[in-house]
Amino acid sequence: MIHLSKTAWEIAAGSASLAIMAAVALWFVFRKRPTAEELERARRQFLVQFGRQVDGMLLDVCQVEAEDGRALTMLVYHYRIASVDYECSQDVTGMTGAFDAAQVRAGFPCTVRYQPGNHHNSIVVAEEWSGLRAGLPVLPSYDDPEP
Question: Which three-class secondary structure string do you get for 2-13?
C-alpha cells in the first residue's frame, strides 16, 4: 500500500487543476467563433421571436458600396416609439429569397420589430418574417349609400 504525503496530494491536485485550466484556455483559443453573418442572423431571429411591433415608414431603398467593393442593398426606415423618432437602416443583401427588392416602394408604411430595452435594435425584414406591405390598403367604396 502506498501512502502519499500531504505535499504529494497537493502536487497532484495542483497538476490536475493546471491541466484543466490549460484545456479551458486551449478551448477558448481554438473554438469556432461565429461569423458576422451568423451574428446578424441570430439578431434577426431574436427580434422575430421576442421583438415588439410598431408602425413605421419606409424612406428609401438604396444601393451602397461596401469597403470590399460589394454592392449592399439597404432599407432605410423611420418609426416612432414614445414620441421619440428613430431612423434606421437594414442591410438586406443576403436575404434575396425573403422579398423582392424591386417591388419595395419608398413612402409605403411598414411594420418594424424592435427590442423593448434597446429601441435602436430593429428590423423590417427577416428570413421568416416581413414587415413590408405589398401596397396601400384599399377601402371599399359605395356607389349609392343609403341614408
Answer: CCCCHHHHHHHH
